Structure prediction request, 620 residues.
Amino acid sequence: MSTSGFVQEKDKREGWNRPPLIEPDGEGELLEVAMGPHHPSTHGVFRMDVALDGERVIRLKPVFGYLHRNHEKLAEGMTYLGSMPFTDRLDYMCPLTNNWAYALAVEKLTGQAVPERAEYLRVILGELTRVVNHASAIGFLIQEMGASGTPLMYAFKEREKILDLFEALTGARMMVNYLRFGGCRVDATPAWLDAVRKVVTGLPQFADEFERLLRGNEILMARTQGVGILRPELAVNAGVTGPMLRASGINYDIRKVDGYGIYNRFNFRVPLGDHWDVYDRFLIRLLEMRESFGILGQALKDIPGGPVIDPKAKLRGFRPKPGEAYGRIEAPKGELGFYLISDGGPNPYRYRIRPPSLINLTVLEDMCLGMNVADVVLIFGSVDIVLGEVDR
Amino acid sequence: MKTVEEIEAAIEAAVPGAGVEIVSNPSVSLQHSLRLAPSHAFAVATFLRDDAELSLDFLSNATGVDWPEKEIAEKVKVTRTVTKTVEGVEQQVEETVEETKKRVVPGCLEAVYHLFSVAKGHGPVVIRMKTANRTDQVNLPSLTPVWRSAEFQEREIFDLFGIVFTGHPDLRRLLMWDEFKDHPMRRDYVEPDDFEYEPTAHDEVLKRAEAHRARLAAATPVQEGAGA
Prediction:
């Protein structure tokens, strides 16, 4: 991980899809700064080695691995269901979508059907997770701008209400371990659904307030507009997904494209960015939250009765037939995929997670070159990563 | 979207002698894949990305798979001529017997890529490449110049599996530290015994450390960056 002296290294990456590097102007000395691994803006243990010419960033290298625990190797040594609790710990802000992606991949591998009620519960929980994630992501972004605490607490106030719902249903605020192959672990009571309706009714008001406080804020606009521009063709080529990609103006939402689960029954729009900058990424998250309220309303209205897990689903002695499958969902941070290879045994032969957080960071240097070092913090914040998923 | 057979035909038409092979997937997911010959993989990948009908502009997932050497015991029917005494006369008789034969499947490392199309909204198309073996011929062409999203993912495969991607602009370890030897995602990986580093190592700990050293010595040494 040592990268000292990397400014002097001849850059071997010229000639392929990336913007030209910025050469120092030759006046004064260059400065190398290690931002992290214990930097408050890095959301955990992550390091950016930045080379500065004055205030300007001329090189940036992300350094990973501080939270690496080889989750994939662990999963190869245990049963399919045994990995389900560990998926909670990937992106610990949105455990339910992690569960969903994994369950979806296994269901693809085995052809397992999912009952209606479970599909609705998955959508409700998935969209609540998206609200939690987007609200917190915005809160953290504003926090990094220097508005210490207050905006984040507005987001966390709402997050607490939703985490209380998760706790009531699954028994845990964050480490939920709720989905099963072919359904969900326990059924939701009518009282719980009423509690969700009550919280969801209050959400638009929260979004209004949040938006009113932030959207027109002069400091926010000055700091974020025109900062960290990500061109759409680069975004697609670099595999950027989620709100990041849509803020670059590309209409690609896996809920629409794949229509996994029952998403093609819902009526929602996909907000797209126009200026491809940090402000757009902030705004897209705000708008996506509002679309999620709509989906939640529809799902809570239509949710049918019935079992929450397919009676034929096999939990003990689960051995999928040999083969492989790649399943993916639109997680709040981007495309979360699981790639599984089965050799017919009780453990997966290969278990791979496609982490949106890691792959969205591919373009971090491209967005930061030529910007001021203070902007790096904001650009990084606008990517919205969780290190549990980056390093796995 | 085109089926794998149609894609294979299109590739063969565009890149003559590409040597694409269809790997069928027996599971219900029906995600069959195309195995590319490493010599033509770069040209094929460029074709897949740029072809107007396929336009697989989005490389979603790139990963490695380790296939160690495997011994398969198979029952084979063998016909042979035996000399037998039938009714007092020696005769040459043909006889069919079942024999268990052991066949060794050579090991390899595999890189798997999942492609989608953002422009057309279809996918996945799965392509894969195989190395010649697991020890010294572990080179594959890098697809990072075609799809930038492979940049970190190929680094991760290099780190955890030990596939060396030629043409990758910045091939370093991603998750493990630079000084680390060996590749943790390989199936024969021997994990280090941390007890060895206990400050006051004593009886049992010393025994474990010794056993660990013996295990390491027995395992095949992995060449760091072999063939690069």
Remarks:
- Chain B has three domains: 4-66+108-166, 70-104, 190-220.
- Chain B is about 20% helix and 30% strand.
